[in-house]
Write a structure and sequence with these properties.
The chain has 207 residues and is mainly alpha-helical. The chain contains seven helices and three strands. The protein has two domains: 62 residues, no CATH class; 136 residues, pyruvate-formate lyase- activating enzyme (Alpha-Beta Horseshoe), CATH 3.80.30.30.
Length: 207
Amino acid sequence: MAAEGMRLTALYSMPTCMPSRACLLTGQHCMHTMQGNNNNAGAPLRPTDVTIGRVMKEAGYATGHVGKWAMKRCAEAGYPVRAVIMPIIPLPGWEDAYARFLRTLLAEVPLDRITLGGICSYRAARFLMEHRLGRSNAISDAFDPRGPSPDGRLRYPAILRTDLYRLMIGTIRGCAPDLDIGLCLEVETVFRALGLTDAIGRCNCVL
């Protein structure tokens, strides 16, 4: 596919969210998709708008809708919707902030699955982050002081990750008792500590 395609070294869409997404999905200027600004929030693309997802599906590829755009409208149209909450960042007051966010999300969107994840990074990404934010920041300060996990990724200590997940799972269960819950890029001991052994190996990236 790459050999038959073209290299785009510069792309201008729009400096706002929905118009940019419309441009990337359709290859058209945003005004041709009726997504000229964020004031159209919630308005869908028209049935006549051909997206790269549709073209790929017709070519035999398995496709999925991933991202924040119009989750509620996708659910209302009958599509299964999954959400990923990642990275969870333990800023001051995170417990109340994430609980309120989850209650709002689950009241608005009937999810098929929700996946939680802490930070999961590599040394090079940490270097870039700290170059921008400084060595002391909310994420770097929470990293496990013992260094990377056996897979080479930087994470919060297991006890912190477990506490983060446990509080959020409690909120989720209070709103949607039967909702399928997964953890992103987690180790088996954390799954077991949370009673989520049935979720080992499940991933929102797999359609």
